[in-house]
């Protein structure tokens, strides 16, 4: 049993320990600093502190543009000489070590031994289930996965899930804490290799690799197909809401009932699940929740407004960069 | 042999015929009108003209925000009473009929019989190969696929590919014409079911359906995972450039050499191709072209600037909409 009663309320966290300060760990450091936390980092790699401070400095102007929390400062970063010192005074620990299972297992056991037992510890792992990582920890109940996307100081998504020995309160606490820290949180009920976002991303990536392997498309065509095609919509409407609109007034139900046969087309190497009545109804009911009463007319207006805003914003950035380059040349 | 010598230069096109004026065809009509073309539309469905004019009116404010071409006006739209009249005077024909192969085959044959033989005819098909659609046409050499994304008046991407009996000049002409009409064009060398963008989208979609079918994720979680995760990056950096950055200073080469084993992980139901030396080198060389000499520091700066611009633009739209709703209530 962990000492849940001594755990701070998620919104009262002041000090975050970041164990591992490479691209992902350093990105977490920058995010937590920008949200006003004190951060204690530890990374055994040679030159890690210099690289970390450079990453934070490089990210800071971006974070300032997005809006810093009150009291946020790069001076709130301390680099600890040992793992034990890093986690000893922390209200929350984020582990972002290299992606090797045996390393994660032993590091999480070390963190678990050194951190106060009521403190929640999250791993940034891209895909290992916590069940396999928590095997050597004495208080595995407070160990969760908190999987970010790169760069963690900008991309809002964090996927939270526990292992078999994780206690439910820790999953809920971590979800609430990340939300308090400005993140967009998906709390998963069960462990799933790659979680959710990486599964979708990996399916797209493998199809892309197959196309290059078979000389069907080039890298350039694949990237352009994404950025100038579906990628523009996916910044604000996910795949389900997008296909709901593709179904016209009949929405997702019409889409599945009438374009269902497309699931048999060889449009990807990934076979489709059978479109059972259960799956059809689950997609329709789930999409209804996402649509949340908006009519197609409203959704189309919202989509168009966002797409134009995104395209104009990207065009402005490109124009600014071109002006800066031309200024730098003269 | 088609009469290529009589074909206008792509930039001299004045009149576009749109055959089929539903969501996709109507979207094309709105796009071509906004780019300053005269458009003649034909659609046999009852009420089609009213629906088309409504779609164009609804899209016009968006198109005006993006910037109209000189002379662009909704008054440049004519609805023809017959297919033959619609295409008789056209410099280019865009077919956007419902997605049924036998319908596409007969309609393209009718268009081919009625349109001047030197005029290029493009089909909006989402996935049929032109080889299977051009079988009843007398001059199949000028028939191409010009596959848009919904809504065609906003999403820039058009995938252009010919069938076995399409002549090379028609594919090149259509690509040049779409570019002149403000589109972002991928010219494919070979027919591929689903083309490129739909294959990537379909792989992501089928993985999503599998997750719902197996109770691993909800529709809401899938859409949030996309919009608040990889979807935010894909609006401006495609999957290959994204993974190049994930490789740190070693880029795509490091990513494949060190994270290659991840391709064996069960992170999606789609099996990966074998990471042969050829595939590895093709990915590295192709990514080098996309990177085009930019250092990682430059790429990260460009990524962060774009991501912040996109997030701020989307937040502004949401704030505007909230203000409008609250105004409407008072």
TrEMBL record, chains A, B:
Keywords: Cytoplasm, NAD, Oxidoreductase. NAD(+) binds at residues 20-25. Residues 15-188 form the 3-hydroxyacyl-CoA dehydrogenase NAD binding domain. Pathway: Lipid metabolism; butanoate metabolism; Amine and polyamine metabolism; carnitine metabolism. GO terms for molecular function: carnitine 3-dehydrogenase activity; NAD+ binding. It is an enzyme of class 1 (oxidoreductase). PANTHER family: 3-HYDROXYACYL-COA DEHYDROGENASE FAMILY PROTEIN, 3-HYDROXYBUTYRYL-COA DEHYDROGENASE. Belongs to the 3-hydroxyacyl-CoA dehydrogenase family. L-carnitine dehydrogenase subfamily. This is L-carnitine dehydrogenase. It comes from Spinactinospora alkalitolerans.
């Amino acid at each position: 049993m962990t000492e849940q009663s001594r755990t701070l309320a998620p919104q009262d966290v002041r000090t975050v320990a970041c164990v591992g300060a490479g691209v992902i760990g350093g990105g977490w450091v920058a995010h937590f600093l920008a949200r006003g936390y004190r951060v204690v980092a530890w990374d055994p790699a040679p030159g890690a502190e210099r690289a970390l401070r450079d990453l934070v400095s490089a990210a800071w102007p971006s974070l300032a543009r997005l809006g810093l929390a009150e009291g946020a400062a790069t001076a709130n970063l301390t680099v600890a000489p040992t793992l034990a010192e890093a986690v000893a005074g922390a209200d929350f620990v984020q582990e972002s070590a290299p992606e090797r299972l045996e390393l994660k297992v032993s590091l999480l056991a070390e963190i678990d031994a050194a951190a106060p037992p009521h403190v929640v510890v999250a791993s940034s792992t891209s895909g290992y289930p916590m069940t396999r990582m928590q095997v050597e920890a004495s208080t595995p109940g407070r160990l969760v996965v908190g999987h970010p996307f790169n760069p963690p100081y900008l991309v809002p998504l964090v996927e939270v899930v526990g292992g078999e020995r994780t206690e439910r309160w820790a999953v809920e606490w971590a979800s609430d804490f990340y939300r308090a820290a400005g993140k967009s949180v998906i709390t998963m009920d069960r462990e799933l290799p790659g979680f959710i976002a990486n599964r979708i991303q990996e399916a797209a990536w493998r199809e892309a690799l197959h196309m290059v392997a078979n000389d069907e498309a080039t890298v350039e065509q694949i990237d352009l197909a994404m950025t100038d095609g579906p990628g523009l919509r996916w910044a604000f409407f996910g795949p389900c809401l997008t296909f709901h609109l593709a179904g016209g007034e009949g929405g997702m139900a019409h889409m599945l009932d009438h374009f269902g046969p497309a699931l048999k087309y060889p449009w990807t190497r990934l076979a489709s699940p059978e479109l059972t009545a259960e799956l059809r109804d689950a997609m329709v009911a789930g999409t209804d929740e996402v649509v949340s009463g908006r009519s197609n007319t409203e959704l189309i207006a919202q989509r168009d407004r966002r797409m134009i805003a995104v395209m104009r914003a990207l065009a402005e950035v490109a124009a600014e960069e071109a002006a800066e380059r031309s200024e730098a040349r003269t």
